[in-house]
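Entry
Fold in token form

___
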Amino acid sequence: MAKVTLVPTPIGNLEDITLRALRVLREADVVAAEDTRHSGKLLAHFEIQKPLERLDAHTIASRAPALLAKYSHIAFVTDAGTPGLSDPGAELVGLAVSGGHALEVLPGPTALIPALVLSGLPLARFAYEGFLPRKGSARRERLGAIAKSTQTVAFYESPKRLTATLEDLIKVCGEERLVSVSRELTKRFETTYRGTLAEVRAQLGSEVKGECVVVVGPADAADPVDFSALAAELAASGLSGRDLRDALSQAGAPRNVAYELSLDKS
């Protein structure tokens, strides 16, 4: 049986790699990487010479079994951060567990935890949503769940889609829901924007650079949503008919209430 070690790598600042991570990369028989060119530069920086094998979302299923049979110790790295969080590492973990191989996960860099702490939002309970679906009913359902959540919710977002996502959140959560957006974490231009959804949307403008972590504050469980007021706010923003009804449903309005308010405000 082989041993698989998931090795977190820096998300921007090379000083964040741990001594243990460097030791494991030097001791492993092979380094499997999501992108061998990217990870090759990291290994070269730390003067580590090891065989590199590509294991990405398209090749893990076909190539991992052969690597597990060939090598006794495999160190796996993804492009940045901790493998297994919204990347191909999760599939490799599943293969290792089902095959009875030894599995080790090192602590280390990740964008998620720093962004949560930087948000200043309640963290006694929180949910992680990975990347939101880009469109369709799956996206509407996830946004609706975030709107109704009574715990803080964090997810990753592309800078190209951030503006649209904040606007979608405003539609289902209302402009006053608290939010934090952290970008370029650990890098030179690291920035965190905090405030209401409306305030952060205005601060960001139209162009955002760098990968982002969005942290949405919890809905107030003590105060029921005023769906009539929300319907008026959404109607004023230009929603009507089915779009208005869907937005109200996503915010938690019962189906009949959403239907009646959509007719009343159209």
Q: What stands out?
A: The chain has two domains: 3-105, 112-223. The chain has eleven helices and ten strands. Residues 40 and 123 are 37 Å apart (CA to CA).
